[in-house]
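in:
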């Protein structure tokens, strides 16, 4: 019987690995090949620290649904990669040969789905004639969640939503100014992301659009006749604003380390607004969001949100978080644009302000500068 497994790959489990499946799988992959990456570094350089996908009753906690994260994740650490999704994963034999080649070369494969119907990240660590061996947060049906042995799936292809095959290392990982520039590029990409992405028949709203979708949901009276129904508290907190806060907290940790190691590289307002976001989510240290502190003292329990007036307060709080996040993105990607536009004068300070949609006519002709300016104009309106 044909069988090959990689040894000593640790379990992926909430409470032991990263709280985010994709980051946990990525870190386990990097550890397995002897090139480990810190958790905050993984969040920062893959764009996860700046993303925020959200939708009720969806796979919004799988950050790889955000465009470009799957394609660019390994590049930050110097590796080429091949990403298979959609029609590219329809041929089981092709997928198996890709997986087999990677495992035979000593590299696990990041998979999506595989053990579960949802497109959750896992790590493929072996194969045999009939199935795949994995480490995963979500076990196959009938398997023990805390099993010591690798999970085994024979129906892996029916559940496969995608694969990331690690290629050769072609450059050193991003550090110093290069790392910060990559984060700034992610900030602009996130700002220019589409409104939503369809996953398993649900439109998952992305980044700044997610806040608006959440506020609209909060103000839909028909859905809030009984706040206890439909896991609303989980979708607002654990799969919503607490995840948003966790992504930004990890980014803040990394930027602090980067600022200490490379003084002058990090734009100080970026750290300041991240600290504001950290403080704006009370209770996160206990895996909770204390709405009585964040939004209104009258929200003594979640059932209080049956009252529309209190939900309006929570919607205002969500809008405030969106404003903070807008300022964060601006503080990351705009300084380089400002430097390019300084001719005969110096900008001492700038800040993010909210304005209604505007039309910008005309940009300086000049290759990459034009492309960057057009993207910024798209951001502004």
């Amino acid at each position: 019987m044909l069988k090959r497994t990689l040894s000593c790959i640790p379990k992926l489990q909430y409470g032991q690995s990263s709280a985010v499946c994709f980051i946990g799988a990525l870190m386990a992959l990097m550890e397995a090949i002897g090139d480990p990456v810190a958790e905050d570094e993984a969040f920062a350089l893959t764009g996860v620290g700046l993303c925020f996908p959200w939708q009720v009753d969806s796979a919004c906690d799988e950050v790889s649904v955000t465009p470009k994260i799957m394609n660019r994740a390994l590049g930050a650490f110097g590796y080429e990669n091949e990403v298979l999704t959609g029609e590219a994963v329809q041929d089981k034999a092709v997928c198996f040969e890709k997986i087999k080649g990677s495992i035979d070369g000593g590299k696990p494969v990041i998979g999506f789905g595989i053990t579960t119907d949802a497109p959750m990240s896992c790590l493929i660590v072996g194969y045999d004639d009939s199935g795949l061996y994995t480490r995963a947060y979500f076990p196959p049906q009938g398997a023990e969640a805390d099993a010591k042995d690798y999970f085994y799936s024979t129906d892996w292809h029916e559940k496969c939503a995608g694969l990331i095959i690690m290629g050769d290392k072609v450059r050193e990982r991003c550090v110093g100014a290069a790392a910060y520039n990559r984060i700034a590029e992610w900030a602009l990409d996130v700002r220019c992301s589409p409104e939503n992405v369809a996953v398993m028949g649900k439109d998952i709203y992305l980044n700044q659009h997610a806040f608006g979708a959440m506020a609209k949901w909060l103000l839909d009276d028909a859905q809030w006749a009984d706040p206890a129904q439909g896991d609303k508290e989980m979708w607002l907190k654990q799969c919503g604003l607490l995840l948003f806060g966790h992504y930004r907290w990890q980014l803040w940790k990394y930027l602090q380390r980067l600022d200490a190691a490379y003084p002058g590289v990090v734009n100080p307002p970026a750290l300041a607004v991240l600290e504001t976001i950290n403080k704006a989510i009370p209770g996160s240290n206990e895996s909770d969001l204390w709405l009585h502190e964040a939004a209104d003292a009258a929200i003594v329990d979640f059932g209080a949100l049956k009252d529309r007036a209190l939900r309006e307060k929570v919607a205002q709080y969500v809008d405030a978080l969106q404003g903070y996040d807008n300022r964060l993105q601006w503080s990351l990607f705009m300084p380089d644009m400002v430097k390019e536009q300084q001719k005969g004068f110096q900008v001492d300070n700038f800040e993010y302000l909210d304005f209604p949609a505007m039309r910008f006519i005309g940009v300086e002709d000049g290759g990459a500068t034009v492309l960057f300016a057009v993207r910024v104009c798209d951001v502004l309106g």
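note: The chain is about 40% helix and 15% strand.
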